Amino acid sequence: MSAGKVQNVAQRIEALRREIDAHNHRYYVLDAPVISDAEYDRLMNELAALEADHPNLITPDSPTQRVGAAPLSAFGSVRHAVAMRSLGNAFETADVESFDRRNAETLAAAGMLPEHGKVEYMAELKFDGLAVSLRYEQGRFVQAATRGDGQTGEDITANVRTVRSVPLRLHGDDIPEVLEVRGEVLMTRADFEKLNAQQQKRGEKIFVNPRNAAAGSLRQLDPRITAQRPLRFFAYGWGEIRLRRNGQVDLFQQEAGAADMPCDTHSGMLEWFAALGLPVNDLRRRVQGADGLLAFYEEIGARRAELPFEIDGVVYKVDSLAAQGVLGYVSRAPRYALAHKFPAQEETTVVLDIDVQVGRTGALTPVARLRPVFVGGVTVTNATLHNEDEIRRKDIRIGDTVIVRRAGDVIPEVVAPVIELRPDDARHFHMPSSCPVCGSAVERAEDEAAARCTGGLFCAAQRKQSLTHAAGRKALDIEGLGEKLVDQLVDSGRVKSIADLFTLNELELAAYERMGRKSAENLIQAINKARKPALGRLLFALGIRHVGETTARDLALQFGSLQAIMDADEEALLAVRDVGPVVAASVRRFFAEPHNREVVAALQKAGVEPQAEAAAQEGDLPLAGKTLVLTGTLPNWTRDEATRHIMAAGGKVSGSVSRKTAYVVAGEEAGSKLEKARSLGVPVLDEDGLKALLGGR
């Protein structure tokens, strides 16, 4: 091949690399792709073909080299040019106030306190991943290392090269000769769940949490395995930096102060990183004084459960680099920075026993009775074990020391046993063959994970759960009918089905514990108000398996009457929007049961008259076929109210934002869903905007 043709090939390869790098940045860092997957694949295939024909033109920073190299025999060691230090921890408000006070006093003595009298900080997230150091030389990625002991870490270059959000080449106008950037490699919750599902399907190791999954992925001796793992990277600091200035290369280090750095603030450095193409998390803010720090902590704590990845606190850093130099270091930690930890979401305790709870649909759920442990801000004594298969998969036994996890308002769960602490007398759990409440046989369908009591409404546990469900806000909305009263009504034998609720009177209700005359009167008023429910609400209240609030309303709109639904065959049911074979079969089975038809007849006899919801044409519904997401607190509507209005207009409400989302309705303290909507270009409405969209409905 002529020199001219080789040059043309080299230019095309370089152009493809730059184009693919740009698309990788938009996809993995900005979450805002501009081309289809197919178009991206075409670019990658062209580049791979050209490199295959011209192997001498392959470079380590080519996008094709992310697929992973041959397995390593072992990890080498890397001496950090600048030590990777740890941070001091704060757990109480007083710790943060003391940190701010010391900084203010030191900077005031040095004449460096701002005129407004408060220290300025950069507040960021404390990721729960694996800390790494990436080294770039002349803008090209050349090395990655773990923290190790702070001075020396493990060489994980081949593995980090496979992480798509790590740029293999920096871009911009001010590319340093050397940049040692520090950050965190992590895995999102969604990616973690997918990975564990794949691991389980292949019969391979299940990871305890996203942090362990990320760490395990980076320490694979075979980089090709790492390449298959969905890892992300966020930059938050630096070690060594060498810049070419006036024809000379000057050395700068984090610990050496701020003289002539590319920026004079930590926040400015993060902006510089982002301009170079390095991913920097957007949830960061400049704040002033202890009040600003604590406000950021409270805000992020409230949004923690909504974040797509795990964090275990927030980090505060004095923003001025010159001020950082004055404050300096103590032992292994900088004086100018502090990690403010959230209450632990994982702790260890002992499984004292495993009980079984019976749910509304008869599903038997094993529950671990735990030695009390403080986790996630509350004392936990029980934790769900989901089902028998899950217990077997995790190998949890009675007597085990286990890791218990509680995130936000999520029900506590047992994550994994600590095998090393397992006692010799630890016992296996076996699902009972008969219901622990009513003694009926327990069965498990071949295609289901849950075992179920066959007693139906004969089972008091199912009866209680079904009554509580029926009285709920999304069903009949009988205010005042709580679990304690339901327990009494069922235990006394007075109420055997939801139809019996409509035969109660004030006098007998007032005789129950904690029920006075006024409470009884209010409850009867609520029951009477529920005698004419919307058909969809009544259908939902019946507790038909697989029939949620949206499906119940769709069935009501399609058929118009309860009798028509009861008489419909599966073919007719399948004609309803989003009703598939499983739901259709479940509805047919429910109304084929004589005792369920008896309950319907008793409801009618008690004066319950469901109100038909005319089946409107989709064109008459302003949100027909559209999916909306709610986030934050609306000024006038609760989420339930907003959901009902959206559904009444033909729309659906989802819990997550995607490119298929039509609108995001945001109120005060909107979380990450709002940011995701903006990054994807999804229209955002406030409550007034939603009302306008509904057209006054």
TrEMBL record:
Active-site residues (renumbered): 126 (n6-amp-lysine intermediate)
Keyword terms, alphabetized: DNA damage, DNA repair, DNA replication, Ligase, Magnesium, Manganese, Metal-binding, NAD, Zinc
GO molecular function: DNA ligase (NAD+) activity
Annotated NAD(+) binding sites: 37-41, 86-87, 124, 147, 184, 317, 341
Signal peptide: none
Binding site for Zn(2+): 435, 438, 459
Cofactor(s) this protein requires: Mg(2+); Mn(2+)
Domain BRCT: residue ranges: 618-697
Pfam families in UniProt: BRCT, DNA_ligase_aden, DNA_ligase_ZBD, HHH_2, HHH_5, Nlig-Ia, OB_DNA_ligase
Coiled coil ranges: none
InterPro entries listed in its UniProt record: BRCT_dom, BRCT_dom_sf, DisA/LigA_HHH, DNA_ligase, DNA_ligase_AS, DNA_ligase_CS, DNAligase_adenylation, DNAligase_N
PROSITE patterns tied to this protein: BRCT, DNA_LIGASE_N1, DNA_LIGASE_N2
EC number: 6.5.1.2
Catalytic activities: NAD(+) + (deoxyribonucleotide)n-3'-hydroxyl + 5'-phospho-(deoxyribonucleotide)m = (deoxyribonucleotide)n+m + AMP + beta-nicotinamide D-nucleotide
NCBIfam families from the UniProt entry: dnlj (TIGR00575), PRK07956.1 (NF005932)
Task of the protein: DNA ligase that catalyzes the formation of phosphodiester linkages between 5'-phosphoryl and 3'-hydroxyl groups in double-stranded DNA using NAD as a coenzyme and as the energy source for the reaction. It is essential for DNA replication and repair of damaged DNA.
Family membership noted in the UniProt record: Belongs to the NAD-dependent DNA ligase family. LigA subfamily.
Protein name in the entry: DNA ligase
High-level lineage: Bacteria, Pseudomonadati, Pseudomonadota, Betaproteobacteria, Burkholderiales
